[in-house]
């Protein structure tokens, strides 16, 4: 509007420069009369000769001749005109224009007609362009436009008007038949008709001039070619050339009045084909205001199946109400490439509200009150929020994807506007930035950004690793977070919301490290705070979709630092927001203990991520809840003011939640966490509830309370001033830990840590966060057993990310292979690193027994292999990974039994196996320790060749030890004897061994032994015969005389056996001595060596004994 007014003002000044003469009125000056003049040579009319008067007769400029009219020249004409077949060049200036006017016009030049005369339109004819060229610059043409004699000159002859001529006397002050006509910065006013074209062509250009206050028309274009029928005389126009008259003033801002092209114009009338748009003073076109597109965040578009009835897939409130069945959520499944498994799901609308909770309805209502109309210049962009942000922006490979590019093009097409304004919320801000990166910013004017995670949010990692209810934990609505975790694994959008490399590059430890792995959760050796590269390793090690993560990396490399000129960034703050996830300890149950750290943000997006857009204006909304920020009154008013360009006058004071700096945002309260199989419920003083409602679903009806779950770990934030009671119920036997942390203005001040409180299924607890104590009903009978106070109270602030360390020191008599052969003393020495919180307790268990608090050194006495497991816990709850020591005790030696041979006589010729049983009930027999000795000589192998030993008594010894080193020994006498048979065997062996040199010697010796054997056999048979005869004689005697009379028979028989014995012994000795004598001879003759001699002699001697 300001530009329009300025142009009109300049136009008025331009007009006055023509209307107000530069010299006095009625100035007397000698005129130059040019009546009846035919100009045949180049001629100049000068200011000194002005005024030039044409009175009653026409002036002609011949072909090839040029009339130059200098600045300041006034040409006065009465009842005549100027006809040009050559060239007229009139060049005035703003101070001294060239003027063509009525003879009766006294405003320029002398008063020629007398003071009583008055000029009027039609006082003179006109300037006729017959051929050649006329150029008028800074020239005024007024009071012309009458055809006095109704005739025109053509090539030196006068022709009457034909059927094409007008039937009246009106004509143009400038008439164009042929040739060129150029007017620039001139004034055509007070004529009957300003400019008239009646030739075949219309080579006329008029610019930056004023055409005003002419009686009939400013321009009348009748030019063109006609075709006539010679017989009938009927004619029809076959061409209609156009006059170019752009950027001229027509007497009114509405432009000239033209019956077809500008019927509502209030300025000069024009007729025929004239190009007049744009014109000077034309109001700036009322551009359609930019259409507004609302781009919602993740999960904020309704998704329906594209089948009859369009059943709702998301959010499917009916499905959420059926807590036991979350199968409906599997309709949202995606494949590993990030494409929908079901192809018939389409977005239908944004999530305007859920039940009584407005999300975008309030914003839409305010925009409508500001003059926007949905469907006309207000649009909502519903999209499939499961897809990649880049695909949602535009160019998706998934068929029929709703994209922001298409929505923007649709809005521009419907409105005719050149640009759109975008209000983007949450992930919608990333979609808008991705669009601007892909397609440029040419179609986007204002960008109003609300709560966008520009650099990501740790809550996305929580969703992927542990699940989340997606913010539906209110009004008994539940999205089972475990199911949500499962279907989120292939949702590109969740990966696009992970903290980016730029997030972890921020100079703030709360952002540089958003995961601390104290336990080596993924077994990759990385512990403590994880940097970006280590986080990538974690993602891969826990099985997150690598393809989708790499795609998200590419996205953020392009948009994280995208510059959006003039952006308005609205940032939620002062709400506890997940800023860090601690992977703490593996519990005895095999599950994990986790920790959360809350930092400043909007409950979902950390402050510095939302603040990462380099915006022209930033507004911080204290206490703004991420999902409902668009519905905040202050945010709605901000958005409307930004769209209207009125932020300079926006009164933020009427909205106390709006802050101008992040430093003005903060939060205070207590973070309470439970790590156990406990069911936790929270109630405020009005009975509102937060907690589980069955089948994995949660509700949270307490304003300001945060309730997060990671597996069996429950995390609460109770804001300062909230009167809340926390109650818990044990779900199974075990124990639980708890933490209460005080937070003031976002700073952690102190920690109350409760460790290992015993738990039964049914145990009840209650906790007032302000009191910092737990009321404890162990058996769940409703009677308070005790009040449990914290095991450790520490000042807050510093992190303790290193677990304590414990060393087991064993004492006792050490045997072999790690065995102790005495009772073992155990001492556990624990420590926490420098600047750590300190050791709270050390505990141990032996042989899978119960954990026992360590109070001092103890002794293990029982024999056997014992496993000692031990660990320490520090005062912030970091639990050392279990260590173990094996204690092996064996104090008793092995037992040797069932020995063979034992106390028995053995033949010298035998090879005897040594058999025994060695056993040890604890460590076991060390088989490599078994040794067999005979007469202290080590026996090789497990058999003894008695051939190598002398006859008589020998000691067999067996030595064994156990694995622990305890030794046992068993000694046993054995007796080696000789018989005739064993002696023969020895002789054979001696011969084969080369100890008897001659076979005849061997034969003689064996023969002697066999003779002794034969004699003994005969003696034995004789004794058997005497015995048999004696029995018969006794039987007969008893029959005749009785038993007492028969005793003499036995006595006689005994005397006979005695005689036989003596005879046998005598015979054997004789043979044996003969053999011994022969042996001596053989020894001397070296037919038998000393070794053989010794064995044979010892055997013969033993036999003859």
Brief rundown of the structure:
By secondary structure, this protein is of the alpha/beta class. The chain contains 18 helices and 73 strands.
What's the SSE blueprint?
Elements lengths: L1 H18 L12 E2 L4 E2 L3 E3 L6 E4 L3 E3 L4 E4 L4 E5 L3 E3 L2 E5 L6 E5 L24 E3 L3 E5 L1 E4 L8 E4 L2 E4 L11 E5 L3 E5 L2 E3 L3 E5 L6 E4 L2 E3 L4 E5 L4 E3 L6 E3 L5 E2 L25 E2 L2 E2 L16 E4 L5 E5 L6 E3 L2 H5 L23 E6 L2 E2 L2 E2 L2 H9 L8 E3 L8 H5 L10 H12 L4 E6 L1 H13 L4 E7 L7 H9 L14 H8 L3 H5 L12 H4 L2 E3 L10 E2 L2 H10 L4 H14 L8 E6 L1 E12 L5 E10 L5 H4 L6 E6 L10 H12 L13 E2 L9 E7 L2 E7 L4 E6 L2 E4 L5 E5 L2 E7 L4 E7 L3 E11 L2 E13 L4 E5 L4 E5 L8 E3 L3 E4 L9 E7 L7 E2 L3 E8 L7 E8 L5 E2 L4 E3 L3 E11 L8 E7 L5 E6 L4 E3 ...
Parallel strand pairs: 1-4, 2-5, 3-6, 4-7, 5-8, 6-9, 7-10, 8-11, 9-12, 10-13, 11-16, 12-17, 13-18, 16-19, 17-20, 18-21, 19-22, 22-26, 25-27, 28-34, 28-35, 35-36, 36-39, 37-40, 39-42, 58-64, 66-73
Antiparallel strand pairs: 14-15, 23-24, 29-30, 29-31, 32-33, 37-38, 40-41, 42-43, 44-49, 44-51, 45-46, 45-50, 46-47, 48-49, 50-53, 51-52, 52-56, 53-54, 54-55, 57-59, 59-62, 60-61, 60-63, 63-64, 65-68, 67-71, 69-70, 69-72, 72-73
Helix pairs in contact: 3-14, 7-8, 15-16, 15-18, 16-17, 17-18
How would you describe this structure to a colleague?
By secondary structure, the protein is of the alpha/beta class. The chain folds into six domains: 2-275; 296-663, Rossmann fold; 668-795, no CATH class; 805-873; 895-977, Sandwich (Immunoglobulin-like); 981-1104. Helix content is 21%, strand content 32%. It has 18 helices and 73 strands. The chain has an eight-stranded parallel β-sheet, with no helix packed on it. Strands 1-4-7-10-13-18-21 form a seven-stranded parallel β-sheet, with no helix packed on it. A hairpin with an 8-residue loop joins β54 (773-777) and β55. α7 (458-466) crosses α8, α15 runs antiparallel to α18 and α16 runs antiparallel to α17 (1047-1084). The longest helix is centred in the C-terminal third of the chain and has 43 residues, at 999-1041. The chain starts with a helix and ends with a helix. The relative contact order is 0.04. The model is unreliable at 1-28, 149-167 and 473-477 (pLDDT under 50).
């Amino acid at each position: 509007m300001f530009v329009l007014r300025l142009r009109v003002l300049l136009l008025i000044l331009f007009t006055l420069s023509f209307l107000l003469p530069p010299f006095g009125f009625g100035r007397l000056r000698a005129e130059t009369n040019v009546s009846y003049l035919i100009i045949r040579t180049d001629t100049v009319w000068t200011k000194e000769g002005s005024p030039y008067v044409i009175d009653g007769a026409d002036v002609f400029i011949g072909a090839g001749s040029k009339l130059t009219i200098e600045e300041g020249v006034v040409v006065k004409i009465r009842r005549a005109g100027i006809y040009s077949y050559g060239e007229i060049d009139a060049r005035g200036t703003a101070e001294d224009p060239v003027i063509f006017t009525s003879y009766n016009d006294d405003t320029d030049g002398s008063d020629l007609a007398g003071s009583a005369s008055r000029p009027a339109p039609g006082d003179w004819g006109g300037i006729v362009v017959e051929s050649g060229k006329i150029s008028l610059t800074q020239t005024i043409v007024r009071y012309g436009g009458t055809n006095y004699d109704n005739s025109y000159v053509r090539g030196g002859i006068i022709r009457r008007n034909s059927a094409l001529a007008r039937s009246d006397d009106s004509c143009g002050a400038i008439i164009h038949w042929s040739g060129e006509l150029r007017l620039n910065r001139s004034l055509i006013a007070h004529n009957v008709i300003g400019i008239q074209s009646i030739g075949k062509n219309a080579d006329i250009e008029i610019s930056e001039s004023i055409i005003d206050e002419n009686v009939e028309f400013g321009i009348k274009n009748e030019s063109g070619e006609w075709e006539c029928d010679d017989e009938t005389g009927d004619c029809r126009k076959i061409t209609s050339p156009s006059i170019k008259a752009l950027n001229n003033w027509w007497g009114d801002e509405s432009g000239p009045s033209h019956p077809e092209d500008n019927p509502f114009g209030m300025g000069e009338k024009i007729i025929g084909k004239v190009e007049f748009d744009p014109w000077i003073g034309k109001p700036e076109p009322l551009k359609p205001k930019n259409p507004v597109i609302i781009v919602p965040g993740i999960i904020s578009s309704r998704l329906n199946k594209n089948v009859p009835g369009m059943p709702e897939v998301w959010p499917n409130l009916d499905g959420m109400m059926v807590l036991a069945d979350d199968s409906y959520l599997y309709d949202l499944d995606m494949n590993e490439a990030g494409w929908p498994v079901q192809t018939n799901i389409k977005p239908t609308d944004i999530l305007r509200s859920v039940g009584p909770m407005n999300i975008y309805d309030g914003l839409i209502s305010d925009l409508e009150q500001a003059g926007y109309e949905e469907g006309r210049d207000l649009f909502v962009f519903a999209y499939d929020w499961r897809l990649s942000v880049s695909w949602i922006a535009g160019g998706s490979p998934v068929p029929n994807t709703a994209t922001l590019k298409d929505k923007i093009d649709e809005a521009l097409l419907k409105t005719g506007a050149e640009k759109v304004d975008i209000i983007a919320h949450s992930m919608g801000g990333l979609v808008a930035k991705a669009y601007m990166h892909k397609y440029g910013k040419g179609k986007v004017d204002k960008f109003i950004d609300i709560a966008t995670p520009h650099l990501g949010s740790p809550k996305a990692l929580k969703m992927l690793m542990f699940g989340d209810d997606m913010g539906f934990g209110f009004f008994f609505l539940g999205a089972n977070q475990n199911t949500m975790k499962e279907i989120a694994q292939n949702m590109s959008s969740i990966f696009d919301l992970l903290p980016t490399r730029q997030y972890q590059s921020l100079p703030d430890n709360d952002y540089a490290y958003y995961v601390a792995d104290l336990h080596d959760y993924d077994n990759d050796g990385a512990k403590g705070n994880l940097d970006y590269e280590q986080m990538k390793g974690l993602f891969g090690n826990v099985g997150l979709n690598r393809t989708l993560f790499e795609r998200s990396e590419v996205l953020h490399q392009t948009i994280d630092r995208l510059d959006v000129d003039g952006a308005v960034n609205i940032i939620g703050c002062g709400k506890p927001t997940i800023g860090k996830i601690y992977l703490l300890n593996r519990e005895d149950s095999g599950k994990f203990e986790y920790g959360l750290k809350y930092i400043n943000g909007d409950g979902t997006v950390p402050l510095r991520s939302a603040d990462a857009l380099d915006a022209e204006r930033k507004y911080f909304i204290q206490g703004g809840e991420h999902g409902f920020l668009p519905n905040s009154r202050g945010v709605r008013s901000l958005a409307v003011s930004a769209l209207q360009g009125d932020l300079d006058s926006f009164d933020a004071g009427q909205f106390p939640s709006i802050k101008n700096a992040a430093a003005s945002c903060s939060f205070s309260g207590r973070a309470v966490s439970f790590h156990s199989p406990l069911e936790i419920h929270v109630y405020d003083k009005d009975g509102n509830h937060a907690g589980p409602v069955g089948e994995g679903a949660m509700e949270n009806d307490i304003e300001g309370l945060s309730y997060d779950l990671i597996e069996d770990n429950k995390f609460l934030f109770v804001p300062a001033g909230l009167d809340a009671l926390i109650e818990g119920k044990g779900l199974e036997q075990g124990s639980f830990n708890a933490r209460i942390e005080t937070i003031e203005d976002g700073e952690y001040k102190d920690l109350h840590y409760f460790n290992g409180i015993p738990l039964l299924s049914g145990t009840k607890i209650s906790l007032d966060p302000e009191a910092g104590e737990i009321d404890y009903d162990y058996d769940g009978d409703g009677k308070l057993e005790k009040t449990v106070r914290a095991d450790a109270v520490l000042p807050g602030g510093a992190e303790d990310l290193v677990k304590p360390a414990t060393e087991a020191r064993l004492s006792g008599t050490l045997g072999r292979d790690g065995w102790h052969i005495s009772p073992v003393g155990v001492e556990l020495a624990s420590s926490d690193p420098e600047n750590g919180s300190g050791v709270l307790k050390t505990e141990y268990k032996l042989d899978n027994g119960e954990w026992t608090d360590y109070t001092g050194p103890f002794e293990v006495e029982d024999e056997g292999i014992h496993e000692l497991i031990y660990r320490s816990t520090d005062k912030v709850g970091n639990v050392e990974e279990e260590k173990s020591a094996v204690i092996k005790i064996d104090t008793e030696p092995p037992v040797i039994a069932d020995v063979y041979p034992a106390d028995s006589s053995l033949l010298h010729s035998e090879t005897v196996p040594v058999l025994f049983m060695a056993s040890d009930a604890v460590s076991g027999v060390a088989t490599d320790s078994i040794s067999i000795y005979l007469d202290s000589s080590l026996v090789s192998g497990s058999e003894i060749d008695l051939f190598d030993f002398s006859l008589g008594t020998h000691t067999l010894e067996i030595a064994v030890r156990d694995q622990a080193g305890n030794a046992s020994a068993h000694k046993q006498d054995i007796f080696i004897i000789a018989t005739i048979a064993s002696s023969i065997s020895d002789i054979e062996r001696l011969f084969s061994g080369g100890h008897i040199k001659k076979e005849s010697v061997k034969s003689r010796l064996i023969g002697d032994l066999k003779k002794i054997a034969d004699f003994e056999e005969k003696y034995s048979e004789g004794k058997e015969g005497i015995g048999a005869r004696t029995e018969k004689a006794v039987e007969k005697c008893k029959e005749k005389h009785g038993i007492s009379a028969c005793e003499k028979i036995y006595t006689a028989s005994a005397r006979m056996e005695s005689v036989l014995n003596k005879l046998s012994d005598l015979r054997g000795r004789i043979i044996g001595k003969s053999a011994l004598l022969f042996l001596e001879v053989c020894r001397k003759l070296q037919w038998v060596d000393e070794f053989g001699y010794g064995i044979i002699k010892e055997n013969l001697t033993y036999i003859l004994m």
